[in-house]
Amino acid sequence: MKEGVPLNPLFAAVMSAVTSGRRTCPKCGKTHTVSPLKKKQAVPCKFCGSLIPASSEGKKS
Fold first, then answer.
1. Residue 3 — φ and ψ, nearest 5°?
2. Which CATH class is domain 9-52?
């Protein structure tokens, strides 16, 4: 890809959805897209402020 050429917005949206996780708030039930950098961290809900725990994907019990 050439430098300085902007990404197609549709392609950027698809890549963002694929590379990031989705979590549902346990309190209000809203779904959020979470950055891959915060995959193993609890994040605050954008609507009610409660903490959404890290996903349990990939964890062995």
1. -75, 145
2. mainly beta
